[in-house]
């Protein structure tokens, strides 16, 4: 039985000499989006002590917290495409498939995407990270690195509860913005004279799924009537998520500058743009969206800001020709999807049998010895990056980053045994598994 409420207190004062909380690891992964999570889980599978750090107070990066909602680039094109990425991707698919309505497959004519429930994915990430014995450090923003002869020795972070300093043999930069590589003083790239726009994702509830307009209808109406609602972007998606009674809206183009003050202003502008797009959908497509309400705004969706200068700069020509690199670590067939003008984006699709490859060289910063990048901050031109930064290949990159650091050990990632690397990533480069069950293939195609 509970007694009287406790009332005792202790008086404390901050000790001026108190230093940061210190952690030691084999691998420190900076950024807990889908690529960082894949890297951390892969490194833990290899028996490494792993610390996974993120500036958000939550795991999952954009995949969970920006409410992206579909895995792209995970299957080859056509209605019966084979899987490109395995390992962690298999674990995710298997876990979500077990949960009713967590997944739905769209077998469109040119692309195949996998719908996922971001809440279910978020819980999977949290449980998997804990089960794997990975040490998460959340709400921790990178402030400083100690670097000696191309090796990062330690990285310092600030959290609302004080500073944390992490020493590690190897580091993964899966921050999306090359935050670690930049902070360490290694060379990075930024767009020269153009912007790559981000998007504020929105989840709408109280919609009528049966009255869903097509993407083409929405885009045509945005072009025709967008001015009346103050829309910036003139094409986009308001797609129902089958069986969940909600729609995800991807209809804004928002700048994502690297200046902290401007970035904050643009994040709020993104919500204004999104609110206007909701008004547009409610008024122009009342059968489906007339009674809809905003259930949730995702965190700002960021496509491309700053990225590494790697051993290899992947080009759009290499993507188009499907060049197979000696050091390939992953592949995809996702279209070139470059959001480089405010009212629309380039969308260049590939044939059914096309695949393009990501070389390890694009993940390895040219000047670093113990750092590997993964995800949307690897080295590529903007068009090439736009087709390899979707989540299927991001998972492959995370796994490859962990393998590369494992093979490098206390040596350099610039000189790893490529035969062993090829063995480890061969599934993600060669294997052709046709995953679809008859039941999945029988589901309606969403245009
Ligand atoms: C609007 C939008 C829609 C998209 N739609 C799709 C889609 O439908 N399907 C698909 O597959 N892909 C889609 N993409 C692309 C895809 O979502 C991203 O490219 C992918 O999620 C990137 O994963 P990541 O792990 O590289 O980075 P992120 O998910 O961005 O993770 C990076 C993490 O690093 C952390 N971080 C950053 N800086 C620091 C720092 N200084 N200190 C500590 N932590 C830091 C961040 O908090 C973040 O959690 C979309 C992207 C956008 C923006």
Task: State Rg.
Answer: 22 Å
The secondary structure category is: alpha+beta
Distance between the termini: 61 Å
For the record, the CATH architecture of the largest domain stands as 3-Layer(bba) Sandwich
DSSP summary: helix tally: 13
Relative helix content = 25-40%
Tally of strands:
20
Largest sheet entry: 7 strands, mixed
Overall CATH class of the largest domain:
Alpha Beta
Q: Which small-molecule species are bound to the chains here?
A: flavin-adenine dinucleotide
Low-pLDDT segments: none
Query: Could you say how many structural domains there are in total?
Result: 2
> Can you tell me the CATH topology of the largest domain?
FAD/NAD(P)-binding domain
- The average pLDDT score comes to 94
Tell me the fraction of residues in β-strands, as a range: 15-25%
Q: Find the CATH superfamily of the largest domain.
A: FAD/NAD(P)-binding domain
Note the overall shape.
globular
């Amino acid at each position: 039985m509970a007694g009287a409420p406790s009332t005792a207190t202790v008086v404390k004062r901050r000790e001026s000499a108190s230093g940061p909380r210190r952690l030691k690891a084999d691998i420190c992964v900076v950024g807990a989006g889908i690529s960082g999570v894949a890297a951390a889980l892969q490194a833990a599978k290899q028996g490494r002590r792993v610390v996974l750090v993120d500036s958000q107070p939550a795991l999952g990066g954009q995949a969970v917290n920006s409410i992206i909602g579909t895995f792209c680039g995970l299957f080859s094109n056509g209605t019966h495409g084979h899987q490109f990425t395995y390992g962690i991707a298999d674990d995710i698919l298997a876990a979500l498939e077990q949960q009713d309505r967590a997944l739905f497959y769209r077998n469109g004519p040119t692309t195949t995407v996998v719908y996922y429930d971001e809440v279910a994915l978020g819980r999977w990430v949290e449980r998997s990270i804990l089960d794997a014995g990975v040490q998460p450090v959340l709400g921790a923003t990178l402030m400083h690195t100690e670097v000696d002869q191309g090796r990062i020795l330690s990285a310092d972070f600030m959290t609302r509860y004080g500073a944390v300093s992490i020493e590690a043999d190897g580091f993964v930069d899966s921050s999306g913005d090359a935050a670690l590589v930049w902070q360490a003083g290694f060379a990075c790239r930024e767009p020269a004279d153009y912007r790559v726009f981000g998007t504020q994702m929105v989840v709408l509830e109280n919609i009528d799924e049966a009255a869903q307009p097509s993407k083409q209808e929405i885009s045509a109406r945005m072009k025709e009537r967008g001015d009346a609602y103050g829309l910036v972007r003139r094409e986009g998606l308001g797609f129902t998520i089958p069986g969940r009674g909600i729609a995800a809206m991807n209809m804004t183009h928002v700048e994502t500058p690297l200046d902290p003050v401007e970035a904050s202003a643009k994040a709020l502008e993104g919500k204004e743009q999104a609110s206007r797009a909701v008004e547009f959908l409610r008024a122009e497509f009342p059968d489906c969206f007339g009674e809809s309400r905003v259930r949730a705004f995702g965190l700002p969706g960021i496509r491309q800001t700053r990225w590494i200068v790697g051993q290899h700069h992947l080009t759009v020509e290499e993507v188009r020709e499907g060049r197979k690199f000696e050091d390939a670590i992953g592949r995809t067939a996702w279209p070139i999807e470059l959001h480089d003008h405010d009212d629309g984006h380039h969308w260049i699709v590939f044939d059914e049998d096309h695949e393009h490859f990501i070389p390890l060289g694009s993940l390895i910063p040219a000047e670093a010895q113990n750092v590997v990048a993964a995800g949307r901050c690897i080295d590529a031109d903007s068009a090439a990056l736009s087709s390899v930064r979707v989540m299927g290949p991001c998972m492959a990159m995370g796994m490859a980053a962990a393998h590369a650091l494992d093979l490098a050990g206390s040596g350099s990632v610039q000189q790893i045994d490529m035969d062993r690397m090829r063995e480890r990533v061969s599934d993600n480069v060669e294997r052709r598994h046709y995953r679809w069950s008859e039941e999945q293939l029988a589901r309606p195609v969403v245009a």
